[in-house]
Amino acid sequence: MSYKIAVIGGDGIGPEVSEEALRVLQACGLDFSTTEFDLGAHRYVKDGVVLEDEDLNALKGYDAIILGAIGPAIGSNEVPPGILERGLLLKLRFELDLFINMRPFTAPKNSIASGSDFVVIRENTEGTYAGEGGFLRKNTPHEVATQGSVNTRFGVERCIRFAFDLANRRNKHLTLVHKTNVLTFAGDLWQRTFDEVKESYSEVTTDYNHVDAACIYMVTQPQNYDVIVTDNLFGDILTDLAGAVTGGIGLAASANLNAAKTGPSVFEPVHGAAHDIVGTNKANPLAAIRSVSMLLDHLGESEKAEKVLNAVIAASEFLASENEKNYSTVEITDLVIERIN
Ligand code: IPM
Ligand code: MN
Question: Of 38, 75, 275, 311, which is least surrounded by CB within 10 A?
Answer without folding.
Answer: 75
